[in-house]
Amino acid sequence: MEAYVYLDLVAPGGSEQAAVADGDEGWLVRAGGVEVLVPYEAEEAARQSEATFGTGLSALLDPGQWVLVSATYASRALEGGLLLAEDPSDPEGLDAVAADWSFAADAVAEALKFVPEGDAGADGPDLESFWTEMGRSARDAAPGRFTRAKLESDLAFYRQSLADLHRLHAD
After folding, report:
1. Closest CA to 66 of 15, 120, 18, 104
2. Is the pLDDT of residue 88 over 90?
3. 3 state SS of 99
């Protein structure tokens, strides 16, 4: 899944143009001249632990990009929730909103992986963690979005929103 998010951010046409091929060590996901190797072992570990975007620290997206991705999914979930309020009987709409809240939570959890342990991480990820122009721009524009407290607050909000959605639409 992380490879597709990465392609959406950097490849012309995004992940919708992606082609997947089996390689010796993993799947090769290609789109718009960009190629990402998804190692078989890493994918298996992610599936076993139900980690949407993988189990380790991302080498494709920096914490700024993860926060932008999480905000995009959260925005989609909010918009979808408004549409769902108009027609609560739409099962596809419900599934889409649930997926968006889940992805928002998972993406901000990825950003949290970059936050150092203890007091050193109170201000969020180290500046060196923001290796992309997109990520640095996000941090420079709103450094308060990257504190541990803010990231944890966002994670809690997204998870609670997903739980509320399930509670409100339980059969």
Report:
1. 104
2. no
3. helix
